[in-house]
Amino acid sequence: MLLSYQVERAKVRMKSKEMTVVVLQQKDIHIEIREELGRVLLMDAADCQEMFLLSSLFRHSMQTHDVIFLERDKDSNMDLFIFNGAIHALTMKDLRKIKTSTRFTKTELYRLTLENSHDDSMWDTWEHWKYEEQLRVKADQDIGVINASQLGLELLFHQCAYLASSFTGHSHMDWNSTQSSIELIIRNIARND
């Protein structure tokens, strides 16, 4: 099993603020992002290793405040940006600028430590009210957005690690989003029977 994964990080300047963006191609990491029925954002990970990578990306964003950009490779998918909205107040216009600027920005290589297990003791102290309205999930044409607080990123981190280490195939995250948000479904395709 992999202990780390090499990612590219680009420094992007937006207005007067500089931020770091982790850029990954969906086809390279075997994760696909799609919007269905105008109200569901699907995050499909091929199997457990990819789900642990997704969990590690959420943890990385939570700890470093990096923006995660999962770039699509085909028209049926959509680009996805994951970020902490309290740290980076990004609009759709900003996200489109980031998308184009990362193509022309020099990147640095970074070794992302990968999760390989899940600590079930986290669920012993679970209080759903702590995580209510900590995620804002939306889709606009070809761009999906997960704007999460620290607690929202923590929830996604634990949920993906749980999906990777259990035989549960998918997780509906709609009860953690605001009423106007699109529903987020994270699926481990190999275990989604």
Write a structural description.
This protein has 193 residues and is an alpha/beta fold. Helices cover 27% and strands 37% of the residues. The protein contains five helices and eleven strands; from the N terminus they run ββαββαββαβαββαββ. A seven-stranded mixed beta sheet has the order 7-1-2-5-6-9-8. Strand 3 (31-36) and strand 4 form a beta hairpin. The longest helix is centred in the N-terminal third of the chain and has 17 residues, at 48-64. It is globular. The two termini are 24 Å apart. The mean pLDDT is 87.
- Strand fraction equals 35-45%
Largest sheet, in brief, is: 7 strands, mixed
SSE series: EEHEEHEEHEHEEHEE
Q: What share of the residues lie within helices? A: 25-40%
Q: Tell me the radius of gyration.
A: 16 Å
Strand order of the largest sheet: 7-1-2-5-6-9-8
Total count of helical runs of at least 4 residues? 5
Average of pLDDT = 87
Can you give keywords for this protein?
single chain, 4-stranded mixed beta sheet, 193 residues, alpha/beta
